[in-house]
Amino acid sequence: TEIRCQEKSRGGLSYEVILAEPAPNVAVPKRPVTPGKNVSVEEIEQKLKAAEERRISLEARKMAEISIKLAKVEEATRKKDEITNEFITQTKEQLETKMETHVEKREAIISDMKEKLKIHAQEIEKTRETLEQQKANEQKAIEEKLKTAQALRDENIKKMLNRLKEH
């Protein structure tokens, strides 16, 4: 083989590879022929038994791997179920506590409102009683004024009648 290098352009190289002429027919080495064995029935049976044992051990190994994988899947499923159940119970407890606090707050608000309304009703009752007393006092004062006015009128009428009689 021969390799020639030429610079065709700036920064560019060109390679020319010349291979040697092909060699005349070369014989490819053949595998040596193994002499034929005389195989007995016992050897064939031993080989078949060995093959059967290998096949059985391979199946057993595969079944063991599958059972291990199934065990892992079952364990993962169990853990997932436990986590889900734990989450459900925690959420349920949180909701129950929230509901309890809500009910307590609501009852406190209602009792506070009832107390305020009770106080307000008492104040209204006191105000009503004082207004009734004032009304009664005013009515008495008006009646007394009417009586005094009637008495003065009667007296004035008597005086006028006396004057008329005297006149």
Describe this structure in words.
The model has no long low-confidence stretch (mean pLDDT 89). The chain has one helix at 41-166, and strands spanning 2-9, 12-18. Strand 1 (2-9) and strand 2 (12-18) form a beta hairpin. It has 167 residues and is mainly α. It has one domain (2-21, 54-166). InterPro entries: Stathmin_fam (IPR000956), Stathmin_sf (IPR036002). Pfam families: Stathmin. One of its GO terms (molecular function) is tubulin binding. Residues 41-155 form a coiled coil.
Give a nutshell description of this structure.
The protein has one helix and two strands, in the order E-E-H.
Query: What sort of overall outline do the alpha carbons produce when their principal axes are compared?
Result: elongated
Number of discrete domains = 1
- Helix/strand order: EEH
- Contiguous low-pLDDT stretches (5 residues minimum) are none
Number of strands: 2
For the terminal residues, how far apart are their CA atoms?
181 Å
Number of helices: 1
Taking the sheet with the most strands, its summary is:
2 strands, antiparallel
- Strand sequence of the main sheet, in spatial order? 1-2
Q: Structural class, please? A: mainly alpha
Rounded average pLDDT: 89
- What share of residues is helical? over 70%
- Which value, in Å, is the CA radius of gyration? 63 Å
Percent in strands: 5-15%
